[in-house]
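We treat protein structure as text, and this decision shapes the records that our systems exchange. The tokens are whole numbers drawn from a learned vocabulary of local backbone shapes. Below, we set out a record of this kind in full and without editing:
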Amino acid sequence: MSMKQLSQEAKQLCRAQHSGVLSTQSTSMPGYPFGSIVPFVITHTGDVIIYISDIALHTRNIKANDKVSLTVFDPSEEDSQSNGRVTIMGDAQLADSPDNAELYFRLFPQAEAYQHTHDFHFYRINVARVRYIGGFGKIHWINPEYWQTEEASWHSQINAMISHMNEDHQDAMQLILRHYANVSSDKVTMISVFSDGAHYCTERRKIVFVPFAGHCDDATAIRKALVSQTNTSREALATAD
């Protein structure tokens, strides 16, 4: 497996989870790491966005030393040593922006209420290196040149793509969730789309990430990936019925 494929696999694992362990350098116990649970999103380019309060210990720690790590793991397996996990190391910087807010609040709409309490701000973790463990014997370091990607022109079309799916392809999204995630819902809403997959929200506010089989470089490739997933889902479910 190439380094590019490993990077995609690691990102897909991260996108499928919604929180991780943020480790910061403790100011009250110098020399010791301080761990806390934080929700996060990964941008199209590979940076990590967190939304944290000025009064939180981890924020105080970041202001004193911006070197952090975020550990994300898949809790689905009973044997934790068999689970996939990713540790992202990098430098955390204040990053309030409309783009970060839009991306974050799509996945965590409840966090919009925090804008008026406790001085919450967005921070971006600029990735220095990634450790990916996909299970026994599958252990890799991923350097930034394989993790980070450039901004692409199709990113400006994302809102239109999401609106199109939500307005015209409800049946397709329901099929995709049933087949790929074993999740049934009378109402499905696409809330994000990336080069490696898409997030969907059910009527009960369950958020599910469905990965693409390969990396998509543009809007046409994403459309083809969604059509392929729909056709595969329809055929598989018809056979099962």
